[in-house]
Design goal:
The structure is a single chain. With 233 residues, this protein is α/β, with parallel strands linked by helices. It has one domain: Rossmann fold (3-Layer(aba) Sandwich), CATH 3.40.50. The strands form three sheets. Strands 4-3-5-6-11-7-8 form a seven-stranded mixed β-sheet. It has a two-stranded antiparallel sheet with strand order 1-2. A two-stranded antiparallel sheet has the order 9-10. The longest helix has 27 residues.
């Protein structure tokens, strides 16, 4: 039996590898050769990954955008809000996540630290003040202005010339969408992506074309996202 165990483990590894390669191939074929998308004049490759089944949701575009931004700031002092990127790439930067004891588990509006060169948040901002207390089983009224407070606090954590980049789904937090529409939350650079009509890919679009997009709660996926950037003066 002991002699067979290494072979069984190896067989399992090969089976998982074969399953994963087959899945990637099926997803790529389903996209009919559309392996790339563009945003702001930059080209990215869609992410196909088993964590959160990225091919089904906005992670397919958010993670490549975030990866490229992290690469642009390699070697700098970095903070991530929401423990997302380590699920895909690891990383040796600071991470604050109120609900994850494996990182710095504090509310971001209460977090204090030495200034950062770059702060990143992937699909986390929309939960702040909106549905975060539901994770604790609390039935609290949403704080419609907490996202504005959180973003202002993050800018305050940047060094002069430092950058903040956030991605967020449209339609998940109606108060956040309204704050962006009114200009109460303003980005130096605001870009948007939306699903194409066939649902197989994403395309860049103006805010006016995506601001009323709905969030698909049945499939837990966005139909449009905002990518917002702020550079501290």
């Amino acid at each position: 039996m002991r002699r067979l165990l290494p072979h069984a483990r190896r067989w399992t590894q090969l089976t998982v590898q074969h399953w994963w390669r087959s899945l990637v191939a099926r997803v790529v074929r389903r996209r009919r050769g559309q392996r790339f998308f563009e945003l702001g004049g930059r080209r990215y490759e869609y992410l196909v990954h088993p964590v959160n089944r990225t091919w089904r949701n906005e992670r397919a575009v958010e993670i490549p955008i975030a990866r490229a931004a992290l690469a642009d700031h390699r070697g700098e002092r970095i903070l991530e809000v929401g423990n997302v990127m380590k699920l895909y790439d690891g990383g040796s930067y600071d991470v604050v996540d109120k609900y994850d004891e494996s990182v710095i588990a504090v509310d971001i509006v209460d977090y204090r630290a030495e200034p950062y060169d770059f702060i990143l948040s992937v699909s986390t901002i929309e939960h702040i003040g909106w549905d975060e207390d539901q994770r604790l089983g609390l039935d609290e009224e949403p704080d419609r202005y907490k996202t504005r407070t959180a973003i202002a606090h993050l800018v305050g954590l940047l060094k002069p010339g430092g950058e903040l980049l956030v991605t967020m789904p449209i339609g998940h937090n109606q108060h956040l969408d309204a704050l962006i529409e009114s200009g109460e939350i303003s980005f130096d650079e605001r870009q948007c992506l939306r699903r194409t009509a066939d649902g197989r890919s994403w395309e860049e679009a103006d805010w006016d074309l995506v601001k009323d997009a709905t969030y698909d709660y049945e499939r837990m996926t966005a139909n449009a996202i905002v990518v917002g950037g702020i550079r501290k003066a």
